[in-house]
Q: What sequence folds into this?
């Protein structure tokens, strides 16, 4: 991985291609890789050599934040972007369909270790059995936000076809109205449709 990344960064630098961000994302959870801590260290070292102004970000579902080595690696990157879409296990089961023993309470406790130095990512949507704007969803989710005090919140909605039919996206205006109490409390919120 280190060699492939170094080759790509060196090539981009020689071609004059600007890079402002190196982001871990994709089809799967990046923190599940058993070498994740070393990959982060290698990425940061290579970033400092080739593109020192670039930010390193990790998009994560936060399921592995109970592992100390994962938390240590995530705390090294510029932007740990950690996801909570629903405030309870029952609601998370409906929207995320997690495998195994996922617990919202455990995820929240694990995110407290970051002391607010992370970006909370949340998807807003409606289906026949889930509605992000319902009081039983939005109110306890806002309490989680207040408890964790993330440095930023990324609120977004569906932007491509989904495997489940009948999902409805929210507009920017709808999400802004839902999040207005947090905006008024001073939380930095990025809203994208």
A:
């Amino acid at each position: 991985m280190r060699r492939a990344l170094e080759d790509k960064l060196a090539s981009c630098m020689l071609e004059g291609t600007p890079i402002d961000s190196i982001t871990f994302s994709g089809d799967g959870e990046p923190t599940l890789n058993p070498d994740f801590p070393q990959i982060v260290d290698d990425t940061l070292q290579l970033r400092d050599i080739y593109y020192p102004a670039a930010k390193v970000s990790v998009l994560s579902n936060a399921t592995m934040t109970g592992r100390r080595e994962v938390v240590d690696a995530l705390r090294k990157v510029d932007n740990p972007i950690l996801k909570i879409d629903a405030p309870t296990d029952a609601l998370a089961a409906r929207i995320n369909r997690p495998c195994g023993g996922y617990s919202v309470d455990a995820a929240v406790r694990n995110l407290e270790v970051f002391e607010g130095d992370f970006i909370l990512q949340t998807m807003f949507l409606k289906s026949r059995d889930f509605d992000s704007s319902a009081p039983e969803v939005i109110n306890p989710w806002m309490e989680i936000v207040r408890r964790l005090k993330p440095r930023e919140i990324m609120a977004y909605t569906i932007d491509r076809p989904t495997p489940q039919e009948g999902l409805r996206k929210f507009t920017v205006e709808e999400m802004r109205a839902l999040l207005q109490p947090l905006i008024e409390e001073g939380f930095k919120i990025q809203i994208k449709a």
User: Anything to note?
Assistant: The chain has a mean pLDDT of 94. The first strand starts at residue 21 and ends at 24. The radius of gyration is 18 Å.
